[in-house]
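In this supplementary section we document a worked example of the pipeline. Step one takes a protein sequence of length 735 as its only input; no multiple sequence alignment statistics are reported here. Step two produces a three-dimensional model, which step three serialises into structure tokens for compact storage. The input and output of this example are shown verbatim.
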Amino acid sequence: MSETTSTNEENKPPLNGRRAIPPNYSNDEENEVPEMEAFGLIPRGFNPRDYLRVVDIYMFKEPQEINKQEHHTDKYYNPKLIVRRGQAFQIQIDFNRPYKPETDQFWLEFLMGRYPQQNKGTYIPILVGNVLKPGQWGAKIIHRENNSIRLSIMSSATCIIGKFRLYVAVLTPYGILRTRRNSATDTYILFNPWCQLDAVYLDDEKEREEYVLNDVGIVFHGNIEDVKSRSWSYGQFEENILDACLFLMDKAELELSGRGNPIKICRVASAVINSRDDDGVIAGSWNNSYDHGVAPSAWTGSVDILLEYYSSKQPVRYGQCWVFAGVFNTFLRCLGIPARLITNYSSAHDNNANLRLDFFLDDEGKVDTRLTKDSVWNYHCWNEAWMTRPDLPVGFGGWQVVDGTPQETSDGMYRCGPASVQAIKHGHVCFQFDAPFVYAEVNSDVFYTRVEKNGTQVVEKIDTTRIGQLIVTKEVGGDGMVDITEEYKFREGSDEERLALETAVMYGVKKQSVQDTTYQPQTDVDMDFQAQKAVLGNDFKVTITFRNKSRNSYTATTYLSGNIVFYTGVTKSEFKKHSFSAKLEPSSPSSFDIVIKSSEYMRDLLEQASFHFFVTARINETGKILAVQKALTLEIPTLRIKTKGELVAGKEASVIVEFTNPLKQTLENITLRLEGPGVLRTIKKQFGRIPMNSTLTWEVKFFPMRPGLRKLIASLNSDALRHVYGELNVQIQKP
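The serialised model returned by step three reads:
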């Protein structure tokens, strides 16, 4: 006996003085549950076989059976039972003899983690009764036949989500007999947007189909002048993804008892999606070198990333904002929290949260890169998750901003949200979490400030409309774009907008007033900048137009700076400098064209083919400075995808991906990726080179997994060219 005690002691975790039970973080760990729990000494003649005994438990867990159909979980590639909380499901128990309610007593036990406790929701005993109360744990017999009974079991609408172990316990005079540990009866319980009592309840069926059940989405990118879109495979139902998502909560050390609360889950997930400070899922890289990893633009979906992290437990390299947002969306939809991916065009990354982005100019009107610390992202992606906010006053539930991209720390970690969209719109930024940061992302003003030799700062121009001009998401039930800017802000210049700003300032958002600095805008001359639609590898033209509204003749010393930038608005290199003197006739417009040659930009081009033009002009007669800046994204060629013959579930089919190299150079080190949720797992292929103007063809044979309308998504990545995508909608027939 003494030997066994000593080994048990070793396995016990160290206790600390503050809690009797160690923290319970892991959904995977288990405790030993005794098959016979004796009430005292057991008499010699006791034979467990004399009592009611469970022979088998049938879970109705096949995709076509009642539970997964009624709970909208039939799409998960997972052999175990998956149900949603607050809604009844059925199981059948086969005993060794007919069940006699007068004398037999049995109950069910659901357990989670290593230290199940009833008050923490990790040990749930369920007695069999006559009625089921909505949204409360309970069970009742709905059918009896021979030795079998069928039970309807109701789970609580607030119960913790994750994987539970199921035992059936039978009462005997001498102790409790339990079924043996059987992983085939494990039950996953998820959030339930179909249940009115659930915190994530969403009342529109079409929205539930989109925000919970759609496993493909659209990422909008490019810039405000030139919105581009690409597909992203969320793949929340693919094999092992549910387990990978539950593992993320273990990794984030979220107590099991907190896992029924979508606010807590979103908050910890926004930290664990990025690898900063907790070795989370994705390592970000914004510097265009992606050694020992995959370029962010090469990913076609979340599945590879989550599965790699689940198996290696090491951050997956590399991601940028749409990758963090894509993986976060998979996590939320997989657990049953309605979620959508948002793109904010001209997104402010305001380092000192004063609602103003400062671009400093030197004497000649050129940008001083040394002083300029803030940046305007061409676009930034985050997520919205749908839930009630019982922690806030009434009216701030609904869509909440959550962001897994590491930008600034919040409570000491790189995370952001959940922040109520409604609170951001009305300026109520006092409500947790991180509302001031999101408010600044969509509401900052851009200040152009000239620094004179003696250090005096003169504000030359204030642009109040550039930031957060367009906020979009994918439409419900289609691939189109829907403009949701009005959900985040009132119309520019309206009284409501002014009031929301005053409210935000009252609640502590810092806003420097213009009175702090000298500001005398130029009013009698306007300057505008337009760029021709430009295709990667070709020359294109830009035009600067002045409108002289005065009766005076002016001359303007004009300076154009063309920069290759990351999509975050940070400059990599200046590739074009051009200055000229413009003669401005009274009361008339004058235009000046400048040609940008491909030879000037191709050498340094970054993967999203983004340019940033900065034009400043000094009116020599008045000394006033005009400034305008514009982002431009080149058209990148696409991949062509086609299928051969008809596509039938389970029958071999073939898909062809083609790409023609449009550049005046040979492409080298090419990687192609192809995936389609429900159609085929990600396939990768490397190619050595594609000479200019020649076409690469790749044929893939595959077996489509399930019928219905599906999407194939492909990407091409090479040393000189990235962000090349193609997609194809395919209808897969029933066999």
